[in-house]
Amino acid sequence: MRAPSRLFPNVNQIQMLRPGSTRPGDEEAILAAYSTEQIAPRYHEAIVAWQKKNFPELDFLEKNWGTYFGKQAPYQLVAKVGKLQTETIQYGRFLGKPKFEKAGEMTGNMFYSARDIIRAQASTELGSIEQHRLTLETAPTDEMKLSVLRIMAEELRHAYQMFWVLDQDSSWKKPGHPDIASDTMDELLAMHLGTHVLDAFNIPFYNFLDNIVFATFIDLVGKYQLEMQKVFSYAPMARSMGPMLSEEGFHIGSGRSFLRELAVGAVNQTGRFSLEQIQKTINIWVPRGAEMFGNERGGETAVAFGFKDRNNGTAQSEYLAECREVVELTNVAIVQAMLPDTSAPDARVLVRTIQDTGDVQRGIRPEDLLFIPHGNFFRKRGLEEVAYQPFDVHGNLLTENGKPIPAAIYLDYLKKNLPDYFVGDAEFAKYQAGLLEHEATGGRPHAW
Ligand SMILES: [Fe+2]
Ligand SMILES: [Fe+2]
Known about the structure:
mainly alpha; binds fe (ii) ion; 2 domains
């Protein structure tokens, strides 16, 4: 680990770009160009201490980096400071004004809401490291293990990046107020599985399917959040998004390719997991991913502050559409494993026909394929008409005598559609308690 010291930006790492070029992809290249910085020694050392305690396997990854990721620059625990898309605010009530360089320029609720976004982001990064580590050693292949280690290392860098956002700006401390930056960083370093900001990062992993399904569908939420925040009106946050996004690409890509590998293994009966197990794991995580966008009718304030370019509902529906696309490509691989001479386009048509009609086609049954549960299934947050309502995996409200089915019957339905280990554990117990309370009180809105 490099000695902690505040460095000047390392200009060598800024990519050279052709001036005036506007080809597709150039915007990404510009955002991926960055300089590196370190945070103040006190917090640099605190993160390294956190890593030694919670992620000691980083040393193994660093020793083996060249073997597996030789084309990538060696891992460094640094902040990567990218370029702004524009110098001016792109959305909301400050549209056209210069971006805020200082947190102290943001007043009232805006200041705290920026802090809350940074805090939640950092918490997800640290939480996911704890989660991945629980089942890391059960990886079916070395490639899977090393890829998850790289994901964990990059999430650590993302947490470091959020610390940099807080650390590089003395105006997070306002005269007469607590030091918001150090209070937030201290709080983050003390969080652990169970006390993280968002539900999805408090759920323990049980087997390696969780690592893979999580990288596929929860890191995808991360991609959406970072994409939306490229416009962030607080400039240091906006500058952080490009480099983080390019790393998220590896996380999502690894998840997708390993998911396909496991699904094909299930078909060939060479893999460790059945398609049913894979489906049930998807049923845990995609609802949590959908909830990470916040209430479907909310998010306007973040747009008004110029923090994001889309509201929650828009982003969530784009996310679910992309999840369905990912699973469709996995299904194409499943069909090609079952009917080896089928081209990818033909396999896709077959997948759609089977899923649209519910019929067996060329010996492939609907249950031989994977699907994304409807956005209303197994939800505990969000719209009043969705949270704790008994929706099935297809989005139908389950009813009895014209009324939604009782909680006890819905719990039985969920148990059939989720892994046994999951319904036997604390996370499901929390859901169950919430559902029963919701039923007892006639349902209270869950603002989020
Ligand atoms: Fe991340
Ligand atoms: Fe990630």
